[in-house]
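Hello,

Our lab assistant flagged a job as stuck in the queue for most of the afternoon. It eventually completed. Since we weren't sure the result was trustworthy after the delay, we are filing this so someone can double-check. Below is the sequence as submitted and the structure that was eventually returned. Let us know if re-running is recommended.
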Amino acid sequence: MNALLSLRGITKSFPGVQALAELDLDLFPGEVLAIVGENGAGKSTLIKILGGAHVPDAGTVQIADQPVVIASPIAARRVGITVIYQEFNLVPELSARDNIFLGGERCLFSRLHRNRERRRAEDLLQRIGFHFDPDLAIARLSVAQQQAVEIARALSQDARILIMDEPTATLTPPEVQALLNIIRELRRQGLGIIYVSHRLDEIFAIADCILVLRDGKRVSCGPANQESRKGLIEKMVGRILEQEFPARRVAIGEPRLVVDDLCRGEKVRNVSLEIHRGEILALTGLVGAGRTETARLIFGADPPDSGAMVLDGKPLDIRCPRDAIRAGICLITEDRKSQGLILDHTVLENFSLPNLRAFSRFGFLRKNQLRQAFAGHAGRLGIKVRDGGQLVNHLSGGNQQKVVLAKWLQASAEVILFDEPTRGIDVGAKREIYLLMNDLAARGKAILMISSELEEVLGMADRIVVMHEGRITGIISDVAGATQENILQLAVR
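-- returned structure --
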């Protein structure tokens, strides 16, 4: 069988960074090729080259044995390549039908063929197993339905090659299984699919072939059924990892943060919990269960309707995030790019944001002290950064997460709320985050870890709190004896 897509010698450099080095790749019709690697391995650069956002410095691209030049996203679409990014590229106010045909509308005498578009949209959605009104606005659709719209749009453009970048990052376990079934159906229809994910269970469930990248180079490429989880991780990180979830032996102390009967509308209903000194308390549940909303109430980002909080025996009156920061509570948000960082500012500027008072004197910023403080955190956290003047947008996801953590550690946070701390982070960087969390717990910090990854919850938590529709439906104290099934039973009550 001839390859649907062939890359030979693809090379791409940025100032000071070799993103890809002489990469070869083949994708065949009806094949799912998974691409894995640490943050900074070159996956995003490869996706952008295939999607027309970047032009390679060297190398050739062939589609069905024909040389092509992909100089723009339009050029990529014309040769049959469509990229579905982790953050959906949809217009919330428009309908699903409008989004499917956006930019490719067909008119007769300046009027859109709306009835024809509707029938075509229904056919495309049915092709991937979805049945909902295509005239519904995107804002009214679930995350899984929005992803179906993205896939339907790709099919409407006669895509032969579908590239999916972290497609399950915001999906619930049932939605993940539904997506994998869609991919199996598209594979059966002869599409070539490139699947990029840090979730190895999904890789082994769906991939025919696995390509491993490290530092912009191809490490290996072979059948998925010949790989093991342990061996794949070692290829990705270039070293042997003793344990995916590092062991921790910390004596758990007295309660530090006590939350009593916290309420906000239907999102958070009568939530009560305790986080102890040295404890990692996991808060889990399906998407929409109220986990993030609970963290925002604790941090003062949203006002509660009722409830009370006590920190180290003292009642808290938190009306805004500034009050929480001064009390020693910090929130590492789920979406670090839009809520945790200012991407077009430097690393030092982001680090300084909650610490301006500490590094200011008579209205002037003491930049030398600021640099020294950041250098100390960068060394302890292992932040890979050229210098403090580097734009945070140029860092990998794992290093961006560490910058967020560094600014809060400098702010002397005692209660740290981690909302999906390893979302979009590779297994090597994940373990570094886990080690940091263990170290924080060993120093007596109280940690709330919100996570949708049940393996992570079971591997890291001392206790597990499960939520469903704004309420706590169960607390698991015997984590060693718990299973994913135990958690899911509580999460769907």
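-- support follow-up --
The delay was a queue issue, not a problem with the job. The result is valid. Residues 255-491 form a domain with the Rossmann fold fold (CATH 3.40.50.300). The mean pLDDT is 88.
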